[in-house]
Amino acid sequence: MSYSARWMSDGEDDRRPSHRRRCANNSNNMPLQSTTSQQPITIGNRELTSRFFLAPLAGYTHHAFRVMLRRLGGLGLATTDLVQAQMLVSQTRKSMELVETSPEDRPLSVQIFSGVTEQLVQAAKWLEDHGYEGIDINMGCPMAKVNGSGGGARLMCDTTGATEMVGRVIDAVDLPVTVKMRLGWDNENLTAPELAAAFEQIGVAAVTVHGRTRQQGFQGTVNREGIRETVQAVKSMPIIANGDVRNSDEAFSMLDETGCAAVAIGRGAMLDPWIFRKLRDIEQGITPHKPTADEQVAFLSDHFHLMREQHGDYSCFLFRKFAAWYGGRLGIPEDLEDRLRRFESAAEFDSLLKEIRARHGERESEIATALIKVPNGPVEHW
């Protein structure tokens, strides 16, 4: 059964960029906002009050991180890290960890990937049988280990085959099915507009477009015009824009410049976990919330210990990668951030936390010391 998706815009379907205006209370020169951002959006059978979503990030957007963002406020739809379809059906340990959820972790979609249609169908049925509310099919991952098996961005090379594959999944379940993809395989094969139009015809609930090609990987800049062309290729299906949105101005300008229905934020949420809260504040015409030192340290502590509830001592290893992202925003002195990337026990973490609290604000730079690590060399060798 397919779900039709509606882009709610006062009864109209105007895909031109909206005119921006300043917030009502703008004495502090607050960021500009889009006039469409406050309108609700319906995807499948779910009405979402926020148009700012959490994009899936491999290795980061796990249950604890999603819940922490929910507690800060302002987050719309969240999507899990990508899960291999066959591994999900087989209920491997890792796949079960990736789809771990809770009532607090809503609304949520689970992202699955495979180059085999039947595996995607079975995974979709498994998710429906186990009470999940939305399915997202990955057609954007640029990694060779995913593309080599026919999944991820490789699916964009065969628009007919991709459409038939997604159609099979839609027919198999009564859940909303969405797709996340890139602009295309390379600049000579920008198939996103064609695919989006085909997906709308078969009942896909929404499409997220990362504004780079597979050939780009995570290099270069996002092509907003390419996203806009994808928006213009559909009639009413929501197109969710993704890529290089790291602050509120970039989020609102993405809405305006592309005409997209929503914005999915990935690395921006890593750099500033309060980004969704700030976007909500701006929409409400109030000064964006600036977390206090106590709030910043509490966030760090709560994230680790919530992760530990699921992963136990292994959380020490999993949490290290967050240090380079959090250091700048959470005011962690550089030498303590370095130790946070190497701690080995919960006791050591708690000891470090005391030092961070005592020395908060001593950091020399507010700039994060690391972005998501991508493989070296040409993308063809990933």
UniProtKB/TrEMBL annotation:
Location of region: Disordered: 1-39
Feature: compositional bias, Polar residues: 24-39
Protein purpose: Catalyzes the synthesis of 5,6-dihydrouridine (D), a modified base found in the D-loop of most tRNAs, via the reduction of the C5-C6 double bond in target uridines.
Ranges where the DUS-like FMN-binding domain occurs: 54-347
Cited CDD domains: DUS_like_FMN
The protein's enzyme class: oxidoreductase
Pfam families reported for this sequence: Dus
Active site (record annotation): 141
Family: Belongs to the dus family.
Name used for this protein in its record: tRNA-dihydrouridine synthase
EC number: 1.3.1.-
Tagged with keyword Transport: no
Residues annotated to bind FMN: 111, 180, 210, 266-267
InterPro entries: Aldolase_TIM, DUS-like_FMN-bd, DUS_fam, tRNA_hU_synthase_CS
GO molecular function: flavin adenine dinucleotide binding; RNA binding; tRNA dihydrouridine synthase activity
Source organism of the structure: Fuerstiella marisgermanici
Keyword tags: Flavoprotein, FMN, NADP, Nucleotide-binding, Oxidoreductase, tRNA processing
Cofactor(s) needed for function: FMN
